């Protein structure tokens, strides 16, 4: 793979990452998921670093982009484990919403989903929540084409795959630039 094709590959990965993370950011804003909103914001900044580094042939920007993507792989694996209730993680906890009680937008707005907010105990329209500032949660959601946790897992998996490609291509591109700098120094000293 030549320098130009590596550059185009990194630019393509950056563009795809930006599209996927902006889509996730929109749905996280609609669901008031503040943890992912903050993480996505930083991810957008580092994607811009990668884009700028690829355009300007800047090794430092490409390396920071690659290192961030290593962290991002860890974050997306955490999201996948969170929504699949792996280990001690529980998708019903307030870890991602930072204690606001919000849930994934996809939980009640997925294709075909019908949310029931009636209480099982007395049939009233809404249960009295000890904290009235928290949004009401449905008692059950039926008819979803795809359960919300699987939509979140698919989104995180796409981001994880793109980040793996970003790390590999970013490191390769950095190596090309460093090798080019070293060879130009050798020609000057001869």
TrEMBL record:
The entry's keywords: Cell membrane, Membrane, Signal, Transmembrane, Transmembrane helix
Subcellular localization(s) per the UniProt record: Cell membrane
InterPro entries noted in UniProt: Na/K-Atpase_Interacting (IPR008516)
Residues spanning the membrane: 34-55, 67-85
Annotated GO CC locations: plasma membrane
Signal peptide annotation: 1-24
Record protein name field: Sodium/potassium-transporting ATPase subunit beta-1-interacting protein
Mode of membrane association: Multi-pass membrane protein
GO biological process terms held by the UniProt record: regulation of sodium ion transport
UniProt-listed Pfam families: NKAIN (PF05640)
Main location: membrane
Similarity section: Belongs to the NKAIN family.
Organism: Pediculus humanus subsp. corporis (Body louse)
């Amino acid at each position: 793979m030549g320098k130009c094709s590596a550059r185009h590959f990194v630019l393509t990965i950056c563009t795809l990452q930006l599209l996927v993370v902006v889509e996730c950011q929109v749905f996280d804003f609609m669901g008031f998921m503040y943890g992912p909103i903050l993480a996505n914001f930083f991810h957008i900044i580092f994607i811009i670093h990668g884009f700028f580094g690829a355009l300007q042939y800047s090794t430092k920007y490409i390396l920071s982009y690659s290192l961030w993507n290593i962290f991002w792989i860890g974050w997306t694996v955490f999201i996948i484990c969170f929504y699949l209730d792996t280990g001690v993680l529980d998708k019903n906890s307030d870890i991602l919403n930072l204690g606001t009680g919000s849930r994934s937008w996809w939980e009640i707005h997925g294709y075909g989903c019908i949310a029931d907010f009636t209480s099982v105990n007395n049939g009233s329209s809404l249960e009295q929540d000890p904290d009235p500032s928290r949004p009401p949660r449905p008692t059950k959601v039926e008819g979803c084409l795809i359960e919300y946790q699987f939509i979140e897992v698919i989104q995180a998996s796409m981001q994880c795959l793109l980040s793996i490609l970003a790390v590999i291509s970013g490191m390769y591109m950095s190596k090309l630039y460093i090798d080019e700098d070293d060879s130009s120094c050798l020609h000057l000293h001869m």
